Amino acid sequence: MNTNPNNALSKFSSLPQFVDFKAEDVKPAITYLVKQAEESIEYVLKKDERDWSNSVEPIMIAVDRLKRAWGQAGHLNSVVSSEKLRAAYNDLVPEVSEFYSKLSQNKKIFQRFKDVAANSHLMGVQREKYLKNELRDYELSGVGLNESEQKIYQDLAKKLASLSAQFSDNVLDAPDDYTLNIQDSEKITGLSVALLEDAKARAVLDGKEGWSFTLKAPCWVPFMESCSNRDFRQEMYRAYVTRASDCGKPEYDNSQTILQILVARREKAKLLGFESFAHLSFATKMAEKPQEALDLLKQLSQSARARAEAEVTMLKTYALDKLGIEELMPWDVSFVAQRIKEERYSFKDEDLRQHFPLSKVIFGLFELLNRLYSISVSEEPAETWDPSVKLFSVNNQEGELIGYFYADLFARDGKRPGAWMDDAIGRWKTDQHVQLPVAYLVCNFPSPSGHSGDAFLSHSEVETLFHECGHVMHHLMTQIDEIGISGINGVEWDAVELPSQFMENFCWDWDIVSKISIDTSGEGHIPKPLFEKMVEAKNFMSGIQTLRQVEFAEFDLRIHLSEAPNDIGQVLKTLNSIRQEISVIDVPQYNRFPHSFSHIFAGGYAAGYYSYKWAEVLSADAFSMTEDGGMSLSDIGSMFLNEVIGKGGLRSSLKNFVKFRGREPKIDALLQHTGLTEI
């Protein structure tokens, strides 16, 4: 008998039960929900009726509950990882993967869905689109394979799920195993007071004297930009670029994991009849084939090349003339760039942090959301997975609750690096109930300082917050009722960044920046002359930065277009050949960037990292409407809501864009925004 364990993961109230969660809940809850979903499949197959309520909805309900519970376990494993939780989660990865593989290859269920889809035009456009997507996904998951081929596919899917989890674990653990402890204050000149305070606190935590610096972004980035000691910069650089590789502890080495992932992906694609894994990936993208993405990357590379070469010349000249550095190395680039930036524009990036207290940034962000979309955001009392995490509700202009999101903003041990949004619950409206959407907004900002009680953000961190909030609004403000295509569900992966990047642009709008900042007295706003200097410096080093992103995206595509490598040396050789063609800054042979490239080896961006640049074309073009001056911000927001983020996966992203912009996207606005063309 399949008995509900009635624990935190198997209860489905409006919000997840994080306060009651224990690692021991994972196995009984997931095992129960998998079994319940299997029973739902059996129930459907016993029914004679072949309609939505008898053939589709019962499976949707069971799968949604499993997805919610498994998603919560995975989320907690990313933000409060522990040995017990990780073991419980990883032990179940094969079982969950096998369930989804078997469901998506169930020929009888596939036929039921086809039968229902034959009359889907009578059910409305949402259900018709949902079924169209489902049938496509069944075919892309091997429903047409014979029994022995399906078994191979299932084994590959389980293997890939486990390998991705292992890759992620290694990337999380390797940096936590490293600190640079410095006990001579004369050797750490140039660092900000805030960074030194954090490093001193870390040293105390580790039972050491002096200052301890980590590889977490809130520490590593300002350290590399400001530390005057070149030897320490080199040491931190080497530690960072060799994370989870053969250059460190064997237990964290991702070399074999990378190889096994690439082999399994290639085999999976071949099994389904695709030329490569990249071609399989593009079956659900806005770009129709890999060459379209490669063409965009080539255009961006050509546009950025001259500017990037001029930037390198500037860095080398300054490094030699002003700093006595005869050979510019990668660990010098950020440091030298900051010195030039400070000299040219009279500020350092870290200097801006004092102007952006998190509390005011959030207040201004929510005010912007109100102006754009006529919504209100309010903090709600909630017990979550960490005391610093906050829960917010979102209401429309009629005062109706439309969803919630959790904000987990600060870096800590046991938390995956980076920033991301994920869906906890999708919107779903049926005749019986309305399921409100819930999202996670996760960042890794420096924690609040003891003397002020507030956290202070760099301007790039402000952009990150706006970016992730754009994803959250995409998920929460959906106007679609069917869960499979509501919110971010069903949206092509290379267009899903459009709403988030659209929001980023407001971080360069004086009207908005004046509302999210303070002056040095703690009142008012950032001085406008300083903001104008920021705008002048906006595209500083944009050539090098563009080529860097092109390099990552092309590497991702090339390794997924080619035959699977036999050893890690081939992977590094592919990357080095791309660097020789694209990069303007040489890196040491020990650089092991692929070993921590979580986007493509542990995230959803395999053969899709180009999506960031693809969506930048869309977002820059979309945002240029606010610069034309022909429409009010509220009118633009209303159009963007109704034609883009509100539509979820109902229409193609290209149709959404054309409905919003009145034409197909152009690259011109992106090139202008990044300073890669003359305006």
Task: Describe this entry's structure for a reader.
The protein is an alpha+beta fold and 679 residues long. Among the domains are: 18-104 and 106-140, Glutathione S-transferase Yfyf (Class Pi), Chain A, domain 2; 178-242, no CATH class; 354-537, Orthogonal Bundle (Neurolysin, domain 3). It is 55% helix and 7% strand. The protein has 25 helices and nine strands. It has helices at 26-46, 52-79, 83-104, 107-117, 125-140, 147-176, 193-205, 217-226, 230-241, 255-271, 277-281, 290-323, 330-345, 358-373, 459-476, 498-504, 510-513, 528-537, 542-561, 568-582, 598-601, 611-628, 633-643, 653-661, 668-673; strands at 180-182, 211-213, 376-380, 390-395, 401-410, 420-425, 428-429, 434-435, 438-445. The chain has a five-stranded mixed β-sheet, with helices on both faces. Strands 1-2 form a two-stranded antiparallel ribbon. A two-stranded antiparallel ribbon has the order 7-8. Strand 4 (390-395) and strand 5 (401-410) form a beta hairpin. Helix 2 packs antiparallel against helix 3 and helix 12 (290-323) crosses helix 13 (330-345). The model has no long low-confidence stretch (mean pLDDT 95).
